[in-house]
Automatic annotation (TrEMBL):
Listed InterPro entries: ABC3_permease_C (IPR003838), Lipoprotein-release_system (IPR051447), MacB_PCD (IPR025857)
Pfam families assigned to the protein according to its UniProt record, in alphabetical order: FtsX (PF02687), MacB_PCD (PF12704)
Any GO CC annotation of this UniProt entry: plasma membrane protein complex
Residue ranges occupied by any ABC3 transporter permease C-terminal domain in the UniProt entry: 271-397
Protein name per the record: Lipoprotein-releasing system permease protein
Length: 404
């Protein structure tokens, strides 16, 4: 039988109603609050990151390859689609490749006029990630016989033009000679990102080919989705080295640098916040063990007088601190994971899409992060428990027995 653990268990029951009991409750609450806040903070941070990145990737994927052009126009010279797609599929890091083309236009309704960019897409290599942003209506259909006349409008563009699902709209394309097309609003999307919602209308890429008199083999560019976004930089460098001299490669992190910088800033702030939380929880644990030792000085002296070693007595307080830590972590996980589950399934806390790019606080479940957070709290708490126990070696039995 472990004597240190047995005495620690007996002390736990004997502390009820004492000052030490109040202090230990505070220690348990501080650990629980720290664990809960860290779990919720990381779940929300990762939720924001994944939601915003998912919205950005739905428009620009991870990489965009197009014709090298010095005028920075949205309308670029065409490139050969099938041959480029075939070359890119040779790289194991590439997951999907979607061709696209863009063309500026003016939408005219009975009451409003608005300039937009028609982005033509295709689903030849799988479903478009834009489907996840659909808010009303249905997604585009791509018939085999001819180009689809259906389009997707953003909620902002639809509200400005007072259009709804099923309405028709005239698109005027500024070219020589000018062209007019009538499109039907098939659906309405919303990303919450003004860079997209205020500009882009989604349609069939074959409409742009017809307007530009391109053959089926030409596209405006291709969007590349990688299997691992974290390897964006090395994969982009590898692909760039194997591209033709007249092609350029744009990384999504460069195209929308302000959004990714904002996400990085959020990450730094949360890390600083979490370090402070762990420091407070550790300080509380050190203070708690110190108070326990001071209140049990007389008992320590008696134990030393009957032959107990410093190591055995330190182990006794170590097990006491371990018990407090585990209880605090248990309650913290229950509170943190419980809050995340409620928000995830009920969307209890809303957000203003104008400021936060989404209409609710997002939650992302990452078991690895939860395990790492618990391990960090557990390790720092045990270290905090060990520090004050070395005071025991300085306690003399004769002085301690007289201590009151």
């Amino acid at each position: 039988m472990n004597v240190s653990r047995y005495i620690s268990h007996k002390i736990d029951g004997a502390d009820s109603g004492s000052f030490t009991s109040s202090v230990t409750k505070i220690a348990i609450i501080s650990i629980a609050m720290g664990v809960a806040v860290m779990i919720v903070s990381f779940a929300i941070l990762e939720g924001f990151r994944n939601e915003i990145q998912s919205k950005i990737f739905s428009f620009g994927a991870h990489l965009q390859i197009s014709k090298y052009d010095t005028n920075n126009s949205l309308e670029v010279e065409p490139i050969g689609g099938p041959s480029l797609v075939q070359d890119l599929h040779r790289f194991p890091q590439v997951q999907t490749i979607q061709p696209f083309a863009r063309k500026t236009a003016i939408i005219k309704t009975r009451e409003e006029v608005l300039g937009v960019v028609l982005k033509g897409i295709s689903e030849e290599d799988g479903q478009s990630p834009m489907r996840q942003n659909l808010q009303a209506g249905t997604f585009l259909t791509f018939p085999d016989s001819a180009a689809s006349n259906d389009i997707l409008l953003s909620r902002k563009v639809a509200d400005k033009l007072r259009l709804k699902v099923g309405d028709d709209a005239l698109f005027y394309f500024i070219q020589n000679p000018p062209r007019v097309r009538k499109f039907t609003v098939k659906g309405i999307y919303q990303t919450g990102l003004d860079e997209f919602d205020e500009v882009y209308v989604i349609g069939d890429i074959r409409q742009i080919r017809e307007l530009n008199a391109w053959p089926d083999s030409l596209v405006g560019g291709v969007e590349v989705v990688l299997k691992d976004f974290n390897r964006l930089d090395p994969v982009a460098e590898t692909l760039y080295e194997n591209l033709r001299y007249d092609l350029k490669l744009d990384k999504i992190t460069d195209q929308y640098a302000q959004l990714f910088d904002w996400l990085q800033l959020l990450n730094r702030n949360v890390i600083i916040f979490l370090v402070l939380i762990i420091f407070v929880a550790t300080f509380n644990m050190v203070a708690t063990i110190f108070i326990m030792i001071l209140e049990r000085t007389n008992m320590i002296g008696v134990l030393k007088a009957i032959g107990a070693t410093d190591r055995q007595i330190r182990s006794m307080f170590f097990f006491r601190g371990l018990s407090l830590t585990l209880r605090g972590m248990l309650f913290g996980n229950l509170v943190g994971l419980g809050f995340c589950a409620i928000q995830y399934y009920t969307h209890l806390i809303p957000l203003d899409p104008e400021n936060y790019y989404m209409d609710r606080v997002p939650i992302f479940w990452d078991p690895t992060i939860i395990v790492i957070l618990n391990a960090a709290v557990f390790a720092t708490s045990l270290l905090a428990v060990l520090i004050p126990t070395y005071l025991i070696s300085r306690i003399k039995p004769v002085t301690a027995i007289k201590f009151d």
